[in-house]
Amino acid sequence: MKRVGQKESASRYSMLIDLDRCNGCGSCMVACAVENNIPPAPASADDRKGMNWMRVYRVATEEKTAFVPIMCQQCEHDTPCVSVCPQNAVELDTATGIVGQIPQRCLGCRYCVAACPYHARIFNWWDPKWPAGMDAMLNPAVSPRMRGTVEKCNMCHGRWHEARLKSTEKTEYTPACVEACPSQAIRFGDLNDANSELAKEVAAGRAFRMLESLNTGTKVYYKTQSAAVRKAVAGEVKS
Q1: Helix ranges, 14-61 (H)
Q2: pTM exceeds 0.85 for this model
Q3: Where in the chain are the domains?
């Protein structure tokens, strides 16, 4: 299901998160922050005003307790945040299938924050400040953002750009959270590549999406052996 006139992406980068492997260590959150120049939160910050692009939530069911990493789900069916942005600061990139955020265009109205059903967008309340010396360790491939803009996961677009410059063929790279996960719970691949391990898992029906009934066509998938955990994450409702 695609909007009329919507072009098929050259690539459709996707993630598959194994909830049975994730132990909630938070390495993915730290790696994401370091890779994308996300500054430490001020002492006055609370959970609502934190700057994490990726958060790990604890889900308790009658079967088991699971940890669920949640970032931008990369919707591709009438993408909610794209449809409400008055500045065209949010775009679905046809080269990657990634929903990109353009801070230079963002006026901070936060319509996209309200529209996102996954609570995966973060408003930047402060200008970035780093402890003494830490600014020398920033990632030169990623520009710091000023206050008053909205931020989100872009599947490490800086790494994609670097990989694209090095290869004239298919662009392959690994996001920071995937690389950092000690339990290898996060996998990354191209859904348009039928031979990729991730695409095969999805085609075989072993993966599901968060709040699938919304039909936003998310490209972040999850898997688990627990029916209760799957029901909780997928948002399945008893009839």
Answers
A1: 27-35
A2: yes
A3: 13-234
